[in-house]
Fold this protein.
Amino acid sequence: MGHVDVSASTTVRDRIIAALHSAEEDDPRGIRARTLRLVKCAMRDRDVTARTNGKCEGCEDKEVHKLLETMVAQREVSAREYDEAGRISDAEREREEMEIIQAFLPRPLEGQPLEDAVDSVVEDLEASKLKDVGRCMAELQSRYPGRIDTGTAGQAVRRALR
């Protein structure tokens, strides 16, 4: 199960709803349909909160990305706890749900693309000391929203500044 293609014309919400409709047609009781229903309910909950805060359109893509990242993190913790408790089938279910949700997140920068992005930021900001790590990380996150793993990127920035 790979990542869903990101199209400029569709939002994450639209892709999730379309995938949910497709999953409900294929297997309404399947794990994919159940997981996407959970995501849809969580988005609705965030929409209600956004509307009470004056955002009439509901939550934006950025909020949906944060929601999906939170849901993935919750499943990672649950899977680990199930593994430790010997509940292997429950851990596997959590991992399946995690894969389904991750398919709607942008791919994180890794390897050479990350190194290239770090080199570009370090050069553009004229960073030269380890105290510039924070500035570089902030710039990376603004240039590549939702695609930066702070641990990996932080190490890459530190290597580039040495």
